[in-house]
């Protein structure tokens, strides 16, 4: 439903007002077309583990030269593919419904309003964490199974007016998020309740290794929790900027964000005092920012341009949390904590870009990023009657030098970048050894690396594209208390960051005359992705395995419809995404979906 994704690396906030320390993704959605058009797409999986998809999209003018609209809806159902040794069935089903609509009103050639609304709902039956290298992997032993419900909705209005020498833009948005689940290993606690959401988080195969007990001791098991969170946000940005064709590009503006977040959890555990009791937490954030950036030619040379930008942000966060015990030995009956955090942040960036030719350029940039600290969502110390410490502010410096090139009259492209980032007090989540809960740990990080991406048109019908990345990321200045509670050490690799990753895509598109099909095109695509091994946690207790994914698609394009076959993850890899270290014999991971095969069609009208 979106047509352009732009990944912006490094600290942001000088062009888009909301401050972002690590980077941002700029999404440009498809706008209404000048004439009526529509599309129907359907995909059917060839086995029970595959995915079924349905999508419809219509677009066109509603009032000639004044009002246009685009409306899209989609539904997908991904089949379960992780064995549940307890029930004999499978887990991992993902069901998603999405709607998006936009209206574009242009009362004059210089004024434009875009109203966009979206809604998404997910209903999942998760497989949760699996015992790494466990029997019959990938498999779990869960009773009862669980489910998760998530809803997102949003409404935004963008207004733009062009004056003679500049343009004014206003962006207004409201968003709502709701997530509910229940994590349970004790069916006895559920029989008298009608929970809307259920998920399991103390899987029997893993817990049997952790406690050296038979897996049957946890069927039904001993630990469960409910998790209900909601978030409402209001965003307003006002900015002035240069016209799109200006020689000197500049932007300046202000924005405001209000965010209200509520979390209710109910934990019951036979083993850990921290994962017992009911918690009600409320977090409110008010953020105010002013920002600006300008790019101008230097020394009268239009090929050499300099960029300078900065932003000022004032954040204020309030927090209120209440805890009530369920009677677990050693816990206080109830506990209340609240607090206020307020801080100011200055960030910015400077860059130089030199066009060697019309098709080749080199650039360099330096950026400073920051993000305010906050209060933990989960009050780890509340059961013992102690306040939780807010996590720290974080600051960073990012450096990059690179080159962008096109060769052979545009048939080939090659981009390269060297980067280096240093972060002070990055809040990395770690499993606390004393409480067996996840808490943010302030740790300095340092990383550097290289990225290459390119494409080459092999022939009129063949295109090859790909990329390669290398990243070296380490932990620095680990404090003694962080090391004692999490196992982190100076020189450990930053978790979830692969040293090497590659991607390669080969595409074919040509007339199908040689198949005896006039006015028809044939298309094919083959993809390969490699992601190297990564540390699972800050303690470097174990690694997440490297993985490779092979995808393919081939079909025929007729004048008004397409038909095709597709395969995702053809070798049936189980990529590992997140890891938990409970002990030497009990390491748990989340895994991606296995092989998906299907047939599809797309009808244009």
UniProtKB/TrEMBL annotation:
Membrane topology summary: Multi-pass membrane protein
Biological process annotations from GO: iron ion transport
Xref: Gene3D superfamilies: TonB-dependent receptor, beta-barrel domain
GO CC annotations, alphabetized: cell outer membrane
Keyword Ion transport: yes
Domain TonB-dependent receptor-like beta-barrel: 112-570
Family, similarity comment: Belongs to the TonB-dependent receptor family.
Subcellular location per the Swiss-Prot or TrEMBL entry: Cell outer membrane
Name of this chain's protein: Putative truncated TonB-dependent receptor
